[in-house]
Amino acid sequence: MSDILLRKIRSQYESLFVETNARLRTSENPRSQTPATRARRMLVDGYFEERGALQNWGPELADFARLVHDLHSAGISPVVSYYTDFPWFIFQSLGDIFSEILGEEYQHLPDFWVWRIDPARGEAGWKPHRDKGGSLGLFPDGRPKSLTCWIPVNDATPQNGCMYVVPKQHDKYYGVDGVDGLGISGLSSIRALPVDSGDVLVWDQTVLHWGAQSSEFASHPRISMALEVQSGKIPAFDEPLLNPRELPPESLRLSLIGKQILQYQHMYPLSDESRVFAKTLVEQYDG
Ligand SMILES: O=C(O)CCC(=O)C(=O)O
Ligand SMILES: [Fe+2]
Known about the structure:
This protein is an alpha+beta fold. It has one domain (3-285): Jelly Rolls. It has helices spanning 3-12, 35-45, 58-73, 86-93, 95-102, 250-263, 272-285, and strands at residues 47-50, 107-117, 146-152, 163-165, 191-193, 200-204, 209-211, 222-230. Helix 6 (250-263) runs antiparallel to helix 7 (272-285). The chain starts with a helix and ends with a helix. The structure holds 2-oxoglutaric acid and fe (ii) ion (FE2). Fe (ii) ion binds at residues 126, 129, 131, 148, 209.
């Protein structure tokens, strides 16, 4: 990627880098639920929201949204915002939640994305899927091997394409190999998950979920980011696993950004220009 672009991001978004924002060296992590409640919700529904977990990062979340809009306006994939420290810092700050579900040795997977779902263009989030199909994401006793953590950078609503899930308890196909589609007895089992900026969503990767079709009457594009995490006790679902206690080095971030643009092309239309851009990133910064 052009060094000019990277320097520009550093100079215009100082709040998103640890070096230029002392706030990112503090860690006060408010929690609205007890670990027991989170564990119970995970067991019954396969997901939970943690309200206000990122409430201290309002200014940074707003700057991150601005960066996503700027990248979009420049025709650059919003996932390039993972060049900054902020997403890595934020996911690191949620470590207590990941470790209580996956164990202390949990790892970050090299799988992440940023969405900017534009209601004015009739856009929708990703279509219904399971991040790990069948029983792939589950231990024999039913506990999840991996999670997706999805963060609303601005408020996500049914109008701008918030997440929807089939809660585990209503899903006849949850964890079942060789089946496809909706294993529910009626549409009322489907649950919308509106969340505000500052909240966090976590689902186990077996849960069926999707990002909704937006409405032209929505007030703003939905901006969100996600990262996958896995247990440290199983083989890697994807390589390289990342130590959650460190911010990945710059060159690794850039090659992983290229990898993301290429690996999610079944979920969204990828232009030839973006494909070339992504391949260049992988080649330029790999190893
Ligand atoms: O934001 C979306 O539309 C889809 C998110 C998703 O499927 C994921 O993060 O696993
Ligand atoms: Fe997903």
